[in-house]
Amino acid sequence: MRLLACLFVFVAQPVFAADTIVAPSLLGSSLKMLAAFAVVIGILLLLYAASRKGFRMLPQKKNGLIQVLETRPLGGRKFLCVVKVRGEEMLLGMSNDRIEYLSKVPSGDKFSETLQQLEGEKS
To answer: What pTM did the predictor assign?
Structure first.
């Protein structure tokens, strides 16, 4: 019963106060806007945190047989890519109209050692 009485007071108050006109406050409107903005930013941050923790709402990247480990631009539309296919790492050269196999990259070696081995094979 008290709940109904309190509800009546809050609902009926604007009806009884309708004969007095109050101009809207700029400060009040600004505070409402900032509160709504804070709520929206808070919801976005919660969704971001949930997606980082493992609650995947977005589709996951599938772990297939082909993985692009690294890509480096060479200029224009030319790239070098290190690709792993069935446990083998390969260096590919990519351009607009073609993809070329450049060499096999031994896994676990440092790049400088691999480069010296490849230079030794050429000469």
So the answer is: 0.42
Beta bridge partners of 55: none
- Report the alpha-carbon distance of residue 62 to residue 13 in Å, rounded: 59
End-to-end CA distance of the chain: 98
The residues spanned by each domain of the chain are 2-53, 66-122
Residue 43 — left, alpha, or beta (φ > 0 → left; ψ -120 to 50 → alpha)?
alpha
Higher pLDDT among residues 83 and 7, named by residue = 83
3-state secondary structure of 21: coil
Side-by-side strand order, sheet with 99-105: 66-75, 78-85, 88-94, 99-105
Q: Tell me which residue of 100, 72, 60, 68 sits closest to 84, measured CA to CA.
A: 68
Strand, helix or coil at 120?
A: helix
Query: Which residue is listed with tokens 């030794």?
Result: 120
Distance (Å, whole) CA 105 – CA 70: 13
